[in-house]
Amino acid sequence: MTQINVQPGIMEIALYQGGQSALAGVTEVVKLSSNENPYGPSEATKAAFAQSGLALHRYPGTDHAGLRAAIAEVHGLDAERIVCGVGSDEVLQFVAQSFAGPGDEIIYTEHGFSMYPILAHACGATPVKVAEKERVVDVDAILAACNAKTRIVFIANPGNPTATMLAADEVARLADGLPASALLVLDGAYAEFVEGYDGGAALVEARSNVIMTRTFSKIYGLGGLRIGWGYAPKEVIDVLNRVRQPFNLSDVQLQTAEAAVRDQEFMRWCRSENTRLGAWLSEALRAAGVEVDESFTNFILARFASPEEADSCDEALKAEGILVRKVGGYGLPNCLRITIGDERACRRVAHTVKQFKRVEA
Ligand code: PMP
C-alpha cells in the first residue's frame, strides 16, 4: 500500500471557512458575509470582461506588463516593483513560500485574517499568534514576539474582521523595529475604503523590508475574477516572480482588472457610498444597543453582550434572509461581521437588529 507522506505542517491547517452564500428555502438572500461590493464591477469593467479572452487556445502573457503599467500609472508607483497574483491570497502565498520554511516563524495577530496561519503551515513554518490591544494591532507585542527565527509579520491594515486601522507612525515603528531576518507584509485588501490612504506604498518605497498587497476583490467588485497584486522592493519582486507560475493569470483576468483600475471614478463612488452607508448603519446599530467601533473598511464589526446574543442575532438575520459572518474563529465570539451592502440591505439589517434587540430586552 502507498504510504502518503504529507509535508510537515499541512495537517495542522484548519480548512478556510468562506462566508455562507445560500440559505435553504430562501431564493433571494442578502449576502453580507464576504465583504463583496454590493454594486458589482463598473460598466467599463464589465465591458472589458465581455470583450476579453477570446483566444482560448492561446496562452496569456507571462509578465502582466499591461496591468502592472495601469496600476503603476493610477497609483503613481514603479511598475517594476509590482507582482500580480490569483487574488492577493496568491501574492501572500508567494511571500510565505519564498521567505519561510520549516524552523522559521511567521507572526500574525489575534484577530488577523485566517489565511495567515494557513500559509504559514503550508510552507512548514510555525505560525505565532500575537495578542491585539482592543482589536487593534499591538506593535509592542509583535516586536516582543520577534526573534532570529521570525521571517514574516502579516498584518492587514485596515484589519479584517476588526475594521480597525493602525496609525501610519505605528506601522513605520513596526517596520523599523523588526529583526533583520524579517519582512513586514501590509495587507491592504481594504485600503481603498480609506480616502487618502496609500495602503503603505510610500513605506515600501522608503524601507527595504516592507511588502504591500492589494486586491481587486473588494472595492472593484471583482471577487469572482481572482486577481490581486503586491508592491515590494525590486529584490523581493525578483524572488516572488521565481515562484509565481508563468501563466497564473488569464487574459480575461488581466484585461478586466486593467479596465477596473483605470475606472477610478467608479472606485471613488463606491468608497463614498460605503462611507455614507457605513456611518448610517453604525449609528443605527449603536442606537439599537450594539457596540460598533469606527469602520475603516466595507464591513462593520457588531459587538454583542455575549456569544449567545451574537448567535441569536445571527439566527434572527438569517430568518430574514440576511447572511452575515460569525467571527468566533477569529477570537471574537460575541461579534458579527456585517458587510456594508447597498442602501436597501443596510436598512434591512438595521431594522432586523432593532427588532431583535427589542425582543431581547
Ligand atoms: N486579505 C484580507 C485581509 C482579506 O480580507 C481578504 C479577503 N477576504 C484577502 C486578503 C484575500 O483577498 P483576495 O484573495 O480575494 O484578493
Mean pLDDT: 96
Structural class: alpha/beta
Question: Which superfamily, in CATH terms, is the homologous superfamily of the largest domain?
Answer: Type I PLP-dependent aspartate aminotransferase-like (Major domain)
Bound molecules: 4'-deoxy-4'-aminopyridoxal-5'-phosphate
Count of alpha and pi helical runs? 12
Uncertain residue segments: none
Order of helices and strands: EHHEHEHEHEHEHEEHHHEEHEEEH
Identify the strand order in the major beta sheet. 2-8-7-6-5-3-4
Would you state the CATH class of the largest domain? Alpha Beta
CATH topology of the largest domain: Aspartate Aminotransferase, domain 2
Terminus-to-terminus distance: 61 Å
Number of structural domains: 2
Percent of sequence in beta strands: 5-15%
Q: Given the C-alpha coordinates, what overall shape results?
A: globular
Which CATH architecture of the largest domain would you pick?
3-Layer(aba) Sandwich
What is the C-alpha radius of gyration, as a whole number of Å?
Answer: 21 Å
Tally of strands: 13
User: What is the helix content?
Assistant: 25-40%
The description of the largest β-sheet is: 7 strands, mixed
Note down, in words, how this protein is organized.
This protein starts with 29 loop residues before the first strand and ends with a helix. The strands form three sheets. Strands 2-8-7-6-5-3-4 form a seven-stranded mixed β-sheet, sandwiched between helices. A four-stranded antiparallel β-sheet has the order 9-10-13-12, with helices on one face. It has a two-stranded parallel sheet with strand order 1-11. It has 361 residues and is of the alpha/beta class. It folds into two domains: 10-40 and 265-360, Aspartate Aminotransferase, domain 1 (Alpha-Beta Complex), CATH 3.90.1150.10; 48-262, 3-Layer(aba) Sandwich (Aspartate Aminotransferase, domain 2), CATH 3.40.640.10. It has helices at residues 43-51, 65-75, 87-99, 115-122, 139-145, 168-177, 201-206, 234-243, 251-262, 264-287, 307-319, 343-360; strands spanning 30-31, 82-85, 105-109, 126-130, 150-156, 183-187, 210-215, 228-231, 291-292, 299-303, 322-323, 325-326, 335-339. The radius of gyration is 21 Å and the shape is globular. It has twelve helices and 13 strands. Helix content is 39%, strand content 15%. Bound molecules: 4'-deoxy-4'-aminopyridoxal-5'-phosphate. Homodimer. It comes from Cognatishimia coralii. It catalyses: L-histidinol phosphate + 2-oxoglutarate = 3-(imidazol-4-yl)-2-oxopropyl phosphate + L-glutamate. Its cofactor is pyridoxal 5'-phosphate. The modification N6-(pyridoxal phosphate)lysine is found at residue 218.
